[in-house]
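Run log, item B.
One chain of 178 residues. Sequence copied directly from the ordering sheet:
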Amino acid sequence: MLKSELRQEIKARKCRFTADGLREQSLAIVRKVLDHPRVGKARTILLYHSMPDEVDTHDLIDRLYRQGKTVLLPVTLGDELEIRRYEGPQRLRESHAFHIMEPVGAAFADLQAIELVIVPGVAFDGKGNRLGRGRGYYDRFLRQVPQAYKLGLCFGFQMTETVPVGPTDVAMDEVLCG
């Protein structure tokens, strides 16, 4: 199956769920994240501020921040991700590119301090291969942080037998789904 075909297949699967149904599934997945030993040990975590069709990370971001962890979020700048510190919901603004909330402030420069990256995806397989939205933002960024443990998050219906991969795709160390 081509990447574009798999994206369409997952989109069709997602349409079978209501927003409330996805929110309920998100709660179970977030509990798994909070119980994960790597999350407990990590001091610096890069997350994503979820879009409506992704595992909802909004509460997770705040919970980890209140636990005293350095929580980082990506900001899209052209074809790259800039990483910035999350400093509370009042320091977020809506992006023009994807209409998601992004932190304001200076770029986080110490990429080697990132211990854990929690990554969204359109689809994942049992080998940790990930299909993104097709722009390559995360694949380019993840090559800059080889020391970070890569944890993919998805709904159960986003797991597939095989994700087509290319030479620039970066696999996850583990995938959590509900």
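Observations after the first pass:
- The chain has a mean pLDDT of 94.
- The longest strand covers residues 70-77.
Flagged for discussion on Thursday.
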